[in-house]
Amino acid sequence: MNYLVSASVLSADMLNLESEIRKMENSGIDMLHFDVMDGVFVNNITYGLAILEAVDKGTDMLLDVHLMIIDPLKYVERFAQCGADIITFHLESESDTMETIKAIKKCGVRASLSIKPNTPAEEVFPYLPYLDMVLVMTVEPGFGGQSFITDTLSKVKAIRDKISELGLDTDVEVDGGINAETSPLAIEAGANVLVSGSYLFKAPDMAEAAKNIKKGI
Ligand code: DX5
Ligand code: ZN
Q1: Ligand nearest to the CA of 183
Q2: Over residues 95-101, mean pLDDT
Q3: Contacts of 161 (CB under 8 A, 6+ apart)
């Protein structure tokens, strides 16, 4: 299994994003996690297309775009044009799930489906054969710096078991409250892509923190 750490720039110093990106590159971070919030799907507003395009010009890191927006289908093509390598959207959004997966794939981008903490794992099962990744939210989406919800681990396990049963090699990503203590639990449950924001960016040594996240492997 390929284990990857995806750093959420939601916790980065926005005024110095370029140096934050260099720090990520030099700390063994595998992907840059880009949280897009529209103020409707979640009660927060972040950044969007123009910033993603600028980030894409400034780094070769894989761009892991997490859309917390009400109508992802409408924007898939433009996020792809702005440099997204992976596009995650929510099952709870208003877009048709299969149509959105198809639209992402059509752009040559990896398709990923996310569920919020209260959405049952089984709801993603029908889509597994069409997905490159599933994102199990381990906090309520909307804000960085929240505490990991332990109850979500059983969903990570159920999804990983189903993926194995179907003989697929779909990635399972976790996002929210991931740190040195919680990441081994998520890995144990079957996650292989670990998003972390506040833990990585607040750490005195980001490279050390990234190593700690992978300790449970
Ligand atoms: C929350 C975002 C997360 C967030 C993670 O809605 O999707 O990506 O940045 O931040 P931490 O690691 O601080 O929980
Ligand atoms: Zn995220």
Answers
A1: 1
A2: 99
A3: 190
Q: How many domains, in total, are found in the chain? A: 1
Distance 117 CA to ligand 2 centre (A): 13
pLDDT at residue 148 tops 90? yes
Check if 64 has its Cβ closer than 6 Å to any atom of ligand 1.
no
Distance 102 CA to ligand 1 centre (A): 26
CA nearest to 180, candidates 211, 137, 202? 211
- Tell me which residue range forms the domain holding 41: 4-216
What length does the chain have? 217
Confidence of residue 216 (pLDDT cuts 50, 70, 90): confident
pTM for the full predicted model: 0.98
CATH code for the domain of 89: 3.20.20.70
